[in-house]
Target: Zinc-type alcohol dehydrogenase-like protein
Amino acid sequence: MKAIALTRYLPIENPESLLDVTLAKPIPQGRDILVEIKAIAVNPVDCKVRAPKETVEKAPRVLGWDAAGVVQAVGPDVSRFKVGDKVFYAGDITRPGSNSEFQLVDERIVGNMPATLSFEQAAALPLTAITAWEALFDRLQVPTPPHALSHVTPRKSILIIGGAGGVGSIAIQLAAKVAGLTVIATASRPESAQWVRELGAHQVVNHFGDMAAELKERGFDNVDYVLILNDTDRHFPAAAAAIAPQGTICTIVENSAPLPINLLTAKSAGFVWEFMFTRSMFQTADMQEQGNLLDEVARLVDSKIIHTTVTQVLSPINAANLRQAHAALEAGHVIGKIVLKDF
Model:
């Protein structure tokens, strides 16, 4: 089968950073399904894993954690899917990724693809939707329907730092349209500010400015929740200043230096992490929750409550186009998601 892989971890400008290769087609066992991949999306985690380091792989390593495709075969213990089903998923970071014609994935972390979307539209959703959903509803414990907060007066509020990126683009929609929160999203450029407003953000502030002052200008002395989606080290002090007493901050970005957690002490505020690969990495008892939430995301999409966030589609799926997508992400100005379709 065709695949894009690496053996050395090189700068993306190097043509050998991602290579077109041919690999053996895998065979499903246990609860694995074999998916014929029609479209993939690119995420910051791809760039992080591929980032330059001294390691040399003995065999080609396939990256990629966002895909939509068709079930071609199933393992003997599979009960949720059958051959021919259209599916979408983010996969498991401990296993070969989705940058290949065929991929094995545990059925428990797979969802039925939204019926109203194309493969490329669906491929933009899984990793960001899982991350945003888990951050909001599992880590921050924002109530979900039928207990959503749209009826609360005044409505509870969330500050989403990095609103125009992939996760932010879904988190804004889920927070505003599903949970009923008042959403303040950050954006630093006119085009990204317009994007987050179109997604449902009620207010926009600049994460490179004085966020506390901008929040006060918009009538917010503090917020009930904060979701940090870029540069935790830079934004944690502002998040700590903004969070309400007994509120909670969640981040998806690793810190590079110790964080001043003591800033939360007097407020009895909480701080939690979201890493969407936790369930598959540790084979947790609730792994099936990722498949369930993807099915719910598909329902929300098909009901026109939320929508896909794809903003650019490249074709075909090959090393050259994938390097282009990685380079765009590393430049730091991507709005929404970049998708590749068709081998």
Observations:
- The CA atoms of residues 213 and 219 lie 10 Å apart.
- The first helix runs from residue 44 to 50.
- The longest strand covers residues 32-42.
